[in-house]
Design brief:
By secondary structure, this protein is mainly α. It is built from 3 helices and no strands. Helix 1 packs across helix 2. It is elongated. The N and C termini lie far apart (77 Å).
């Protein structure tokens, strides 16, 4: 069995731990072990992916086939010279 030492506990936290341990009829050490075990036994929820969540939300409605539009040539970028005047003067 491994052991650890926890330093710099504030007095209020230590007092609350002592009271909780007494209420549960355990030593402070056993109370800390049970608190740590309970905290670490909680299953961590997997990271949620927005795309997957949207898919799961609409999955019950069935699939939809979307028309794939043909690609077009890229439009020429807009030009703004002359609109604001000479900004460097």
């Amino acid at each position: 069995m491994a052991s650890i030492t926890v330093r710099n506990l504030d007095e209020d936290l230590k007092r609350r731990l002592r009271i909780r341990a007494a209420r549960n009829e355990r030593s402070m050490e056993q109370e800390v072990r049970d608190i740590l075990r309970a905290a670490l036994d909680q299953e961590v929820a997997p990271a949620r992916n927005l795309g997957t969540e949207i898919h799961n939300l609409f999955k019950p409605f069935g699939e939809v086939e979307l028309e794939i539009l043909p690609r077009e040539a890229m439009r020429e970028l807009p030009r703004f010279d002359g609109i604001l005047g000479d900004v460097h003067s």
